Amino acid sequence: MTAELNSEILHEVFQKRAVNTHKGDYGRVLLIGGNKYLGGAILMAASASVDSGAGLTTVATDATNIGPLHARTPEAMAIDWADTVALAEQLEKSDVILVGPGMGTDEFAVQLLKTVLFGVTAKQILVVDGSAITMMAEHNLSFPLNTFTIATPHQGEWERLSNVMIKYQEDIPEMTELQRQNLNIDVLVLKKYHTQVISNDRHVELRIGGPFQATGGMGDTLAGMIAGFVGQFPEPRRATEAAVYAHSAIAEQLAGHNWVVKPSFVSSFIPNFIASIQTNL
Ligand SMILES: NC(=O)C1=CN([C@@H]2O[C@H](COP(=O)(O)OP(=O)(O)OC[C@H]3O[C@@H](n4cnc5c(N)ncnc54)[C@H](O)[C@@H]3O)[C@@H](O)[C@H]2O)[C@@H](O)CC1
Ligand SMILES: Nc1ncnc2c1ncn2[C@@H]1O[C@H](COP(=O)(O)OP(=O)(O)O)[C@@H](O)[C@H]1O
Ligand SMILES: [Mg+2]
Protein backbone atom coordinates (compact mmCIF):
# COMPACT_ATOMS: atom_id res chain seq x y z
CA MET A 1 0.00 0.00 0.00
CA THR A 2 1.23 3.47 -0.87
CA ALA A 3 0.99 5.85 2.07
CA GLU A 4 0.48 9.57 1.73
CA LEU A 5 3.55 11.75 2.26
CA ASN A 6 2.31 14.39 4.68
CA SER A 7 3.69 17.26 6.77
CA GLU A 8 4.75 14.93 9.61
CA ILE A 9 7.91 14.26 7.62
CA LEU A 10 9.01 17.86 8.18
CA HIS A 11 8.80 17.55 11.97
CA GLU A 12 10.66 14.26 11.79
CA VAL A 13 13.51 15.57 9.63
CA PHE A 14 14.08 19.24 10.49
CA GLN A 15 16.31 19.39 13.54
CA LYS A 16 17.40 22.34 15.61
CA ARG A 17 21.09 23.02 14.94
CA ALA A 18 23.53 22.49 17.79
CA VAL A 19 25.13 25.81 18.75
CA ASN A 20 28.75 24.64 18.55
CA THR A 21 28.63 23.68 14.86
CA HIS A 22 30.03 25.16 11.65
CA LYS A 23 29.51 24.97 7.86
CA GLY A 24 31.55 21.75 7.68
CA ASP A 25 28.80 20.04 9.69
CA TYR A 26 26.02 20.76 7.19
CA GLY A 27 27.23 19.08 4.04
CA ARG A 28 29.80 19.72 1.35
CA VAL A 29 27.60 19.56 -1.72
CA LEU A 30 28.98 19.30 -5.25
CA LEU A 31 26.59 20.04 -8.12
CA ILE A 32 27.67 18.96 -11.60
CA GLY A 33 25.76 20.21 -14.64
CA GLY A 34 24.97 23.15 -16.86
CA ASN A 35 26.42 23.06 -20.35
CA LYS A 36 26.76 26.19 -22.47
CA TYR A 37 23.02 26.19 -23.29
CA LEU A 38 21.41 24.87 -20.12
CA GLY A 39 23.31 26.82 -17.49
CA GLY A 40 20.07 27.94 -15.83
CA ALA A 41 19.40 24.40 -14.62
CA ILE A 42 22.53 24.18 -12.50
CA LEU A 43 22.12 27.78 -11.32
CA MET A 44 18.65 26.88 -10.03
CA ALA A 45 19.99 23.72 -8.36
CA ALA A 46 22.75 25.80 -6.75
CA SER A 47 20.43 28.41 -5.26
CA ALA A 48 18.16 25.62 -4.00
CA SER A 49 21.10 23.92 -2.29
CA VAL A 50 22.28 27.15 -0.65
CA ASP A 51 18.75 28.15 0.39
CA SER A 52 18.15 24.67 1.82
CA GLY A 53 21.04 25.25 4.20
CA ALA A 54 23.88 23.18 2.75
CA GLY A 55 27.08 24.10 4.59
CA LEU A 56 29.17 24.48 1.44
CA THR A 57 27.91 24.39 -2.15
CA THR A 58 30.31 24.01 -5.07
CA VAL A 59 29.27 23.92 -8.73
CA ALA A 60 31.22 22.16 -11.50
CA THR A 61 29.94 23.59 -14.77
CA ASP A 62 30.81 24.92 -18.19
CA ALA A 63 33.08 27.94 -17.75
CA THR A 64 30.50 30.26 -19.35
CA ASN A 65 28.17 29.73 -16.37
CA ILE A 66 30.57 30.70 -13.61
CA GLY A 67 30.10 34.48 -13.86
CA PRO A 68 26.30 34.27 -13.91
CA LEU A 69 26.40 31.82 -11.00
CA HIS A 70 28.51 34.15 -8.88
CA ALA A 71 26.26 37.09 -9.74
CA ARG A 72 23.11 35.22 -8.69
CA THR A 73 24.39 33.05 -5.85
CA PRO A 74 27.66 34.38 -4.47
CA GLU A 75 27.47 31.87 -1.60
CA ALA A 76 28.29 29.07 -4.08
CA MET A 77 31.83 28.25 -5.18
CA ALA A 78 32.59 27.14 -8.72
CA ILE A 79 35.04 25.19 -10.85
CA ASP A 80 35.31 24.71 -14.60
CA TRP A 81 34.10 21.15 -15.20
CA ALA A 82 36.81 20.65 -17.84
CA ASP A 83 39.50 21.17 -15.17
CA THR A 84 40.18 17.53 -14.35
CA VAL A 85 42.45 18.24 -11.38
CA ALA A 86 39.96 20.58 -9.67
CA LEU A 87 37.13 18.16 -10.44
CA ALA A 88 38.97 15.18 -8.93
CA GLU A 89 39.68 17.21 -5.78
CA GLN A 90 36.02 18.22 -5.41
CA LEU A 91 34.78 14.71 -6.14
CA GLU A 92 36.96 13.39 -3.36
CA LYS A 93 36.05 15.87 -0.66
CA SER A 94 32.29 16.21 -1.17
CA ASP A 95 29.70 14.52 1.02
CA VAL A 96 26.92 14.79 -1.54
CA ILE A 97 27.24 14.86 -5.32
CA LEU A 98 24.36 15.86 -7.61
CA VAL A 99 24.95 15.16 -11.27
CA GLY A 100 22.78 15.97 -14.26
CA PRO A 101 20.75 19.20 -14.29
CA GLY A 102 21.32 20.88 -17.66
CA MET A 103 24.33 18.68 -18.33
CA GLY A 104 23.37 17.83 -21.90
CA THR A 105 24.14 14.49 -23.45
CA ASP A 106 27.17 15.09 -25.70
CA GLU A 107 30.36 13.03 -25.61
CA PHE A 108 32.01 15.32 -23.03
CA ALA A 109 28.99 14.93 -20.74
CA VAL A 110 29.05 11.13 -21.12
CA GLN A 111 32.73 10.97 -20.13
CA LEU A 112 32.14 13.31 -17.18
CA LEU A 113 29.22 11.20 -15.99
CA LYS A 114 31.38 8.06 -16.17
CA THR A 115 34.07 9.81 -14.11
CA VAL A 116 31.46 10.53 -11.44
CA LEU A 117 29.89 7.05 -11.47
CA PHE A 118 33.28 5.35 -11.18
CA GLY A 119 34.70 7.91 -8.73
CA VAL A 120 32.08 8.06 -5.96
CA THR A 121 32.74 6.19 -2.74
CA ALA A 122 30.75 4.47 0.00
CA LYS A 123 31.03 7.56 2.22
CA GLN A 124 29.19 9.76 -0.25
CA ILE A 125 25.60 10.21 -1.38
CA LEU A 126 24.92 10.49 -5.10
CA VAL A 127 21.88 12.26 -6.58
CA VAL A 128 21.25 11.61 -10.29
CA ASP A 129 18.89 13.88 -12.23
CA GLY A 130 17.96 15.19 -15.67
CA SER A 131 20.45 14.66 -18.50
CA ALA A 132 22.46 12.19 -16.40
CA ILE A 133 19.44 9.86 -16.28
CA THR A 134 18.98 10.13 -20.04
CA MET A 135 22.67 9.33 -20.62
CA MET A 136 22.54 6.35 -18.27
CA ALA A 137 19.68 4.99 -20.36
CA GLU A 138 21.29 5.77 -23.74
CA HIS A 139 24.70 4.32 -22.80
CA ASN A 140 23.52 1.52 -20.55
CA LEU A 141 25.48 2.81 -17.56
CA SER A 142 25.05 1.33 -14.07
CA PHE A 143 24.48 3.09 -10.78
CA PRO A 144 27.39 2.55 -8.38
CA LEU A 145 27.05 -0.47 -6.12
CA ASN A 146 28.50 0.94 -2.91
CA THR A 147 27.24 4.51 -2.90
CA PHE A 148 23.85 5.51 -1.55
CA THR A 149 22.04 6.64 -4.70
CA ILE A 150 18.99 8.83 -5.15
CA ALA A 151 17.53 9.08 -8.68
CA THR A 152 15.01 11.80 -9.55
CA PRO A 153 13.53 11.08 -13.01
CA HIS A 154 10.31 12.51 -14.33
CA GLN A 155 8.06 9.92 -15.94
CA GLY A 156 9.63 10.36 -19.39
CA GLU A 157 13.14 9.89 -17.99
CA TRP A 158 12.02 6.86 -15.96
CA GLU A 159 10.52 5.29 -19.06
CA ARG A 160 13.90 5.71 -20.83
CA LEU A 161 15.87 4.32 -17.91
CA SER A 162 13.64 1.47 -16.76
CA ASN A 163 11.73 0.65 -19.95
CA VAL A 164 8.55 0.80 -17.87
CA MET A 165 6.11 2.69 -20.09
CA ILE A 166 4.29 5.61 -18.51
CA LYS A 167 0.90 3.85 -18.62
CA TYR A 168 2.37 0.86 -16.76
CA GLN A 169 4.05 3.19 -14.25
CA GLU A 170 0.50 4.28 -13.39
CA ASP A 171 -1.27 0.93 -13.61
CA ILE A 172 1.39 -1.54 -12.40
CA PRO A 173 3.55 0.14 -9.71
CA GLU A 174 5.19 -3.23 -8.94
CA MET A 175 7.12 -2.97 -12.23
CA THR A 176 8.67 0.31 -11.10
CA GLU A 177 9.65 -1.18 -7.73
CA LEU A 178 11.24 -4.18 -9.46
CA GLN A 179 13.26 -1.92 -11.76
CA ARG A 180 14.30 0.32 -8.87
CA GLN A 181 15.86 -2.75 -7.24
CA ASN A 182 17.36 -4.08 -10.48
CA LEU A 183 18.95 -0.70 -11.22
CA ASN A 184 20.37 -0.46 -7.68
CA ILE A 185 18.65 2.82 -6.81
CA ASP A 186 18.28 3.41 -3.07
CA VAL A 187 15.66 6.15 -3.35
CA LEU A 188 13.61 6.67 -6.48
CA VAL A 189 11.79 10.00 -6.74
CA LEU A 190 9.40 9.45 -9.64
CA LYS A 191 8.32 12.99 -10.47
CA LYS A 192 4.86 13.74 -11.79
CA TYR A 193 1.45 14.93 -10.66
CA HIS A 194 1.47 13.06 -7.31
CA THR A 195 5.20 12.30 -7.18
CA GLN A 196 6.17 8.94 -5.66
CA VAL A 197 9.16 8.39 -3.37
CA ILE A 198 10.14 4.75 -3.30
CA SER A 199 12.89 3.33 -1.09
CA ASN A 200 13.57 -0.09 0.39
CA ASP A 201 11.62 0.58 3.58
CA ARG A 202 8.61 2.44 2.26
CA HIS A 203 6.70 3.80 -0.71
CA VAL A 204 5.00 7.17 -0.28
CA GLU A 205 3.01 9.45 -2.55
CA LEU A 206 2.84 13.25 -2.53
CA ARG A 207 -0.68 14.60 -2.78
CA ILE A 208 0.04 18.33 -2.62
CA GLY A 209 1.37 20.63 -5.34
CA GLY A 210 -0.20 21.30 -8.71
CA PRO A 211 0.13 22.46 -12.32
CA PHE A 212 1.47 25.84 -11.17
CA GLN A 213 4.71 23.80 -10.88
CA ALA A 214 4.69 22.75 -14.54
CA THR A 215 7.50 25.06 -15.60
CA GLY A 216 11.11 24.40 -16.67
CA GLY A 217 13.54 24.33 -13.75
CA MET A 218 11.10 23.06 -11.13
CA GLY A 219 12.85 19.66 -11.07
CA ASP A 220 16.33 21.22 -11.11
CA THR A 221 15.27 23.13 -8.00
CA LEU A 222 14.01 19.94 -6.33
CA ALA A 223 17.32 18.20 -7.12
CA GLY A 224 19.25 21.03 -5.44
CA MET A 225 16.94 20.86 -2.42
CA ILE A 226 17.41 17.11 -2.09
CA ALA A 227 21.20 17.57 -2.22
CA GLY A 228 21.02 20.33 0.41
CA PHE A 229 18.70 18.31 2.66
CA VAL A 230 20.64 15.03 2.57
CA GLY A 231 23.82 17.02 3.22
CA GLN A 232 22.56 18.42 6.51
CA PHE A 233 19.85 16.13 7.87
CA PRO A 234 20.39 12.51 8.95
CA GLU A 235 18.80 9.53 7.17
CA PRO A 236 18.82 10.24 3.43
CA ARG A 237 15.53 8.43 2.72
CA ARG A 238 13.61 10.64 5.11
CA ALA A 239 15.57 13.78 4.13
CA THR A 240 14.64 13.16 0.47
CA GLU A 241 10.97 12.76 1.40
CA ALA A 242 11.14 16.02 3.37
CA ALA A 243 12.64 17.83 0.37
CA VAL A 244 9.93 16.49 -1.94
CA TYR A 245 7.21 17.57 0.48
CA ALA A 246 8.71 21.00 1.23
CA HIS A 247 9.25 21.78 -2.48
CA SER A 248 5.56 21.34 -3.29
CA ALA A 249 4.30 22.81 -0.01
CA ILE A 250 6.20 26.04 -0.71
CA ALA A 251 4.97 26.10 -4.32
CA GLU A 252 1.40 25.57 -3.14
CA GLN A 253 1.65 28.43 -0.65
CA LEU A 254 3.01 30.74 -3.36
CA ALA A 255 0.36 29.60 -5.85
CA GLY A 256 -2.25 31.37 -3.73
CA HIS A 257 -1.14 34.61 -5.37
CA ASN A 258 0.89 33.40 -8.42
CA TRP A 259 -0.46 31.82 -11.62
CA VAL A 260 2.78 29.92 -12.14
CA VAL A 261 5.39 29.61 -9.43
CA LYS A 262 8.89 30.34 -10.67
CA PRO A 263 11.39 27.74 -9.44
CA SER A 264 13.78 30.41 -8.16
CA PHE A 265 10.88 31.90 -6.18
CA VAL A 266 10.41 28.50 -4.48
CA SER A 267 14.09 28.50 -3.49
CA SER A 268 13.97 31.95 -2.00
CA PHE A 269 11.22 30.80 0.40
CA ILE A 270 12.98 27.64 1.64
CA PRO A 271 14.73 29.26 4.64
CA ASN A 272 11.47 30.90 5.72
CA PHE A 273 9.56 27.63 5.28
CA ILE A 274 12.00 25.57 7.34
CA ALA A 275 12.01 28.22 10.08
CA SER A 276 8.20 28.08 10.22
CA ILE A 277 8.57 24.42 11.27
CA GLN A 278 11.82 24.57 13.25
CA THR A 279 13.74 27.55 14.59
CA ASN A 280 17.28 27.92 15.92
CA LEU A 281 16.17 30.26 18.71
N1 LIG B 1 16.68 26.64 -17.74
C1 LIG B 1 17.31 25.52 -18.03
O1 LIG B 1 18.52 25.46 -18.26
C2 LIG B 1 16.52 24.24 -18.04
C3 LIG B 1 17.22 23.06 -18.26
N2 LIG B 1 16.59 21.85 -18.21
C4 LIG B 1 17.44 20.65 -18.37
O2 LIG B 1 17.23 20.16 -19.67
C5 LIG B 1 17.56 18.79 -19.72
C6 LIG B 1 16.46 18.03 -20.43
O3 LIG B 1 15.34 17.88 -19.55
P1 LIG B 1 13.81 17.94 -20.00
O4 LIG B 1 13.03 17.29 -18.91
O5 LIG B 1 13.45 19.35 -20.35
O6 LIG B 1 13.71 17.15 -21.35
P2 LIG B 1 13.57 15.61 -21.73
O7 LIG B 1 13.49 15.55 -23.18
O8 LIG B 1 14.62 14.81 -21.05
O9 LIG B 1 12.16 15.17 -21.08
C7 LIG B 1 10.96 15.79 -21.47
C8 LIG B 1 10.11 14.78 -22.23
O10 LIG B 1 9.58 13.85 -21.31
C9 LIG B 1 8.15 13.82 -21.46
N3 LIG B 1 7.49 13.57 -20.16
C10 LIG B 1 6.62 12.56 -19.94
N4 LIG B 1 6.16 12.62 -18.67
C11 LIG B 1 6.72 13.70 -18.11
C12 LIG B 1 6.60 14.28 -16.81
N5 LIG B 1 5.82 13.74 -15.86
N6 LIG B 1 7.30 15.39 -16.54
C13 LIG B 1 8.10 15.94 -17.48
N7 LIG B 1 8.27 15.44 -18.74
C14 LIG B 1 7.58 14.31 -19.05
C15 LIG B 1 7.80 15.18 -22.03
O11 LIG B 1 6.61 15.11 -22.72
C16 LIG B 1 8.96 15.46 -22.93
O12 LIG B 1 8.77 14.85 -24.18
C17 LIG B 1 17.80 18.33 -18.29
O13 LIG B 1 19.17 18.25 -18.02
C18 LIG B 1 17.20 19.45 -17.47
O14 LIG B 1 17.87 19.58 -16.21
C19 LIG B 1 15.16 21.74 -17.93
O15 LIG B 1 15.09 21.57 -16.56
C20 LIG B 1 14.40 22.99 -18.33
C21 LIG B 1 15.05 24.26 -17.81
N1 LIG C 1 0.83 19.15 -12.58
C1 LIG C 1 1.75 19.01 -11.62
N2 LIG C 1 1.37 18.76 -10.34
C2 LIG C 1 2.28 18.63 -9.37
N3 LIG C 1 3.62 18.72 -9.56
C3 LIG C 1 4.05 18.97 -10.80
C4 LIG C 1 3.17 19.14 -11.90
N4 LIG C 1 3.91 19.37 -13.00
C5 LIG C 1 5.20 19.36 -12.63
N5 LIG C 1 5.30 19.12 -11.30
C6 LIG C 1 6.55 18.99 -10.52
O1 LIG C 1 7.56 19.85 -11.06
C7 LIG C 1 8.79 19.15 -11.12
C8 LIG C 1 9.22 19.02 -12.59
O2 LIG C 1 10.43 18.32 -12.69
P1 LIG C 1 11.18 18.16 -14.08
O3 LIG C 1 10.23 17.67 -15.10
O4 LIG C 1 12.43 17.41 -13.83
O5 LIG C 1 11.52 19.71 -14.41
P2 LIG C 1 12.83 20.41 -14.97
O6 LIG C 1 13.76 19.35 -15.50
O7 LIG C 1 12.32 21.33 -16.05
O8 LIG C 1 13.46 21.17 -13.86
C9 LIG C 1 8.59 17.81 -10.43
O9 LIG C 1 8.87 17.91 -9.05
C10 LIG C 1 7.09 17.58 -10.67
O10 LIG C 1 6.52 16.71 -9.72
MG1 LIG D 1 14.30 17.57 -14.82
From TrEMBL:
Annotated positions binding AMP: K191, K192, Y193, H194, T195, G219
Catalytic activity: (6S)-NADPHX + ADP = AMP + phosphate + NADPH + H(+); (6S)-NADHX + ADP = AMP + phosphate + NADH + H(+)
Key word Metal-binding present: no
Assigned keywords, A-Z: ATP-binding, Kinase, Lyase, NAD, NADP, Nucleotide-binding, Transferase
Keyword Transferase: yes
CDD domains: YXKO-related (cd01171)
EC class: lyase
Binding site for (6S)-NADPHX: A41, G102, H154, D220
Named cofactor requirement(s): Mg(2+)
Matching InterPro entries: Carbohydrate_kinase_pred_CS (IPR017953), CARKD (IPR000631), Ribokinase-like (IPR029056)
GO molecular function: ADP-dependent NAD(P)H-hydrate dehydratase activity; ATP binding; kinase activity; NAD(P)HX epimerase activity
One GO term of the biological process aspect: nicotinamide nucleotide metabolic process
EC id: 4.2.1.136
Family recorded in the similarity comment: Belongs to the NnrD/CARKD family.
Chain's role: Catalyzes the dehydration of the S-form of NAD(P)HX at the expense of ADP, which is converted to AMP. Together with NAD(P)HX epimerase, which catalyzes the epimerization of the S- and R-forms, the enzyme allows the repair of both epimers of NAD(P)HX, a damaged form of NAD(P)H that is a result of enzymatic or heat-dependent hydration.
Oligomeric and partner information: Homotetramer.
Entries under PANTHER family matching the protein: ATP-DEPENDENT (S)-NAD(P)H-HYDRATE DEHYDRATASE, ATP-DEPENDENT (S)-NAD(P)H-HYDRATE DEHYDRATASE FAMILY MEMBER
Full protein name: ADP-dependent (S)-NAD(P)H-hydrate dehydratase
Gene field: nnrD
